[in-house]
Amino acid sequence: MKEETTLAAHKTGTVDVPVRVRLTFDPKDPFAVTFAFRNGRRGEVPWMFGRELLFDGLASPTPVGDGDVRLTRISQDTLQMEISSPSGSAQFEFDVEPVADFLAAASAEAAEIMNSDLACDELFPARGADRGDVGSG
């Protein structure tokens, strides 16, 4: 099952532009979330980053993120995302509530995945050695 939410954001700058953004959590990668920005007729531009970074961005009073995604809780109701690449950068603002709701649902699904021994063995093949499943020398 994939957790998915579509919400409205706006690109900040000299002129604010409304943007549709699709948030996706894929259980095949329980540590990540994807924000896919609608790019007119050209489709979507996806940005995948750590689920923990999104949590930190919602929880921290200071900016978080060292790479191409930086998050700042600029008010109680607004989360700002700055994304950058070699071809440029952009800032977006989101209402906190739908982002937090998406993160809660994605985290609940991730917890189910992480608590499954089968899933953990598939995600972390060396884990069996930690449990003593591999013979000792």
Description:
Helix 1 crosses helix 2 (96-114). The longest helix has 19 residues, at 96-114. The chain has one domain: Transcriptional Co-activator pc4, Chain A (Roll), CATH 2.30.31. It starts with a strand and ends in a 7-residue tail after the last helix. It has four helices and seven strands. With 137 residues, the chain is of the alpha+beta class.
What is the global morphology? globular
- Mean pLDDT across the residues is 81
* Secondary-structure class: alpha+beta
User: Architecture, according to CATH?
Assistant: Roll
Strand runs, count: 7
**Which parts are unreliable, with pLDDT below 50 for 5 consecutive residues or more?**
127-137
Name its key features.
137 residues, alpha+beta, Transcriptional Co-activator pc4, Chain A, 7-stranded antiparallel β-sheet, 28% helix, globular
Topology at a glance:
Elements: E1 3-12, E2 17-25, E3 32-38, E4 44-50, H1 51-59, E5 69-73, E6 78-85, E7 88-95, H2 96-114, H3 117-123, H4 127-130
Antiparallel strand pairs: 1-2, 1-7, 2-3, 3-4, 5-6, 6-7
Helix pairs in contact: 1-2
Question: Concise description?
Answer:
By secondary structure, this protein is an alpha+beta fold. Helix content is 28%, strand content 39%. It has helices spanning 51-59, 96-114, 117-123, 127-130, and strands spanning 3-12, 17-25, 32-38, 44-50, 69-73, 78-85, 88-95.
